[in-house]
Amino acid sequence: MDLRPFASACRAAFRGGRRLAAVGLILAATACTHYYTPSETAVWSKDSRLPATTQPVKVTISNVQVVGHEVLIDAWGEQRWLMDLHDWTDSAVALLRLGLEAKNYRVGDPAEKSLKVSVEAAYMGGGTFNPFVEVVVAVSTGDAKLAVFKGRRPQTFLVDEVFNEALEVAIGKVLDSDLVIDYLTRPSGQEVKRIRSSNPNEGGKPAA
Predict the structure, then answer these.
(1) Ordered structural domains, the chain, with CATH
(2) pLDDT value at residue 73
């Protein structure tokens, strides 16, 4: 039996001041650890600043988060809500794939371009009156540049759904970023020539 909706309602009831209802729900619960899970099917509904490609550009997207990396999102009494960041990174990869395919990029392996993705953190904040959830996504391009993107949404009773919305916001920022746009639209090999010419005595490695 999936107790996550039940447990989320319990926590929400307590936070909203309905303590008796919360206590009743807790007494009826039979599990104390619950997971916020990503959507089973990725749906991309946003546009982005990334220009549509007119050339056959292929991109590899990798999930580089550690398998089984679980983080505590919330707790009340013996109730705990966790998130598996590797699973959420899988969802981030699926969203990024859809966003790239919407701009005519081909996603697969091997490819001349690569993006490494990791959901680094997720949490709740804002206190009682302005609660929100936030997801932090790190993206590394094939030319070894790294950037972090945050997606935030107001918290509601449907916490799983809101975390998914926050993840989509973060991926939208990835595709809007100058870092990713510059990397994906730059002709392949151009970054290698630039690095080698900047430090010819280092065997092609960028200067420290």
Answers:
(1) 1-31 (no CATH), 32-199 (3.40.50.10610)
(2) 96
